[in-house]
Amino acid sequence: MSRSEQATELSSNPASHAGTLTVCAIIVTWQPELMSLQNLLVSLSAQQCPVFVIDNGSANVAALQQLLDVLATEHPGQPAAHLVHWPENKGLATALNEGLRLAKNSNADMALLFDQDSTIKPGFVSAMLAQWHDLQALQGSGQYHLPAAAIGPRLQDPDSGRRTPFRCFRWRKRSDCPVAGFPGLYQTDFLISSGTLISLQALAAIGDMKDEYFIDNIDLEWCFRARARGYALYGTDRAVLFHRIGEPSTNPLVRSGVMVQHSPLRSYYSTRNRLHLRRQSYAPFDWKVRDSVRFALKSFWLTHFTAKRAEYRQQIQRGIEDAETMP
C-alpha cells in the first residue's frame, strides 16, 4: 500500500483510530467575552472533550463560573469544564503550564490548547487526533524520522477569511512545506499555541512553557526548543481554527498579514522576549536574521506613524533594556 493510500485509509474513520488516545482541552482566560467563550466550550463539550479553564484574575469570574454551571446542567451527558481561578494575572505561560499539569494528572495522552476567543467547528477534535495517528505512519521513515511533538490546525481569520501559512525558518523552505504522500499535511517550525495538539509525552522531554515570557512568543520559544531537542512539528489542513491575531489596523502590511500589531504594552513583552530568544543557541539562525529586519521595520513604523507612537517608543525601549538583563 502506498503512503497516500495509507493516509486515505487512516482518514476514512477518525473515531476508530482516535479512540486509543485520550485528550483534554486547556483554555486560558482573562476578562473573557462570555458569548465567544461559550461557543468554544459548547463545541468542545459536544465533541466529548474535557476542558480545564485557567482564569488569570478576571473581574467577571463569577459570571464565568455561572456560565460553566449552566452548561453542565444543560448538557448532563457531556464532560463538564473545570475552572481554576487565580486572583491575579500570572501570565499565559504559567496558566498553560497549570493546565498541562492538570492534563497529565488526569492521565490524558494529549492536550489541546486554546485562546478564549478562538472558534472551532464540529469534528475538530477527532480530525486533529486522526491526523496525529497519520503521523505515526511517518515515524522512522526517511526524512520524517523525528518523533512528533505537536500538530496545529490551519489558522483562518474569521473576518477576512485569510489563511495563515505554516512557517519554516530555513533558507530554502519558507512556508507550507508539504509532507510527501500526505495531502494537507505540512512540516513546520512554528505553531501558535491556540488550537495546537501537544503530546504530553513529548512535553515531558521538551519542558514546560517559559514562565518568564508571561504572554508573548511563548509558543515560538517552545517550538524552537522542541525542534532543537529532536522533535518535529506539523500543520494540517484537516482542521481549521478561526482566530484573530493582533489588533485591527489600517496599515497595509497588517491588513495583508505580513505584520501583526498589538498594544504598546504587548509590544513591550514582544520586544523583550524576541530579543531574548535571539540570544538562545536553539533559535534558528535564519529566523534570527529575518526577525532582526522585521523588528527594525516594525519598530520604526510603530514609533513614527501610529497614533500611540510615544507609548510604543517608551515600551519598546523598555523591552530592549529588560531583554539585556533577562536570564
Walk me through this protein's architecture.
The N terminus is likely disordered. This protein folds into two domains: 240 residues, Spore Coat Polysaccharide Biosynthesis Protein SpsA, Chain A; 74 residues, no CATH class. Helices cover 44% and strands 17% of the residues. The protein is an alpha/beta fold and 327 residues long. It is globular. Strands 1, 2, 3, 4, 5, 6, 7, 8, 9 and 10 form a ten-stranded mixed β-sheet that branches.
Show the helix and strand layout:
Layout (H helix, E strand, L loop, with lengths): L2 H9 L2 H5 L4 E7 L4 H13 L4 E6 L4 H14 L6 E6 L5 H14 L4 E6 L8 H13 L11 E9 L6 E2 L12 E2 L6 E4 L8 E3 H7 L11 H11 L3 E11 L9 H4 L8 H15 L6 H21 L3 H17 L2
Parallel strand pairs: 1-2, 1-4, 2-3, 5-10
Antiparallel strand pairs: 4-9, 5-6, 5-9, 7-8, 8-10
CATH homologous superfamily heading of the largest domain:
Spore Coat Polysaccharide Biosynthesis Protein SpsA, Chain A
| CATH architectural arrangement of the largest domain | Alpha-Beta Complex
For the report, how would you describe the main beta sheet? 10 strands, mixed
CATH topology descriptor of the largest domain: Spore Coat Polysaccharide Biosynthesis Protein SpsA, Chain A
Rounded to the nearest angstrom, the radius of gyration is 20 Å
Sum up the overall morphology in one term.
globular
Based on secondary structure, the structural category is alpha/beta
* Number of DSSP E strands: 10
Number of domains: 2
Order of helices and strands: HHEHEHEHEHEEEEEHHEHHHH
Low-pLDDT windows of residues: 1-19
Distance between the termini: 51 Å
CATH class designation of the largest domain: Alpha Beta
Counting DSSP H or I runs of 4 or more residues, the number of helices is 12
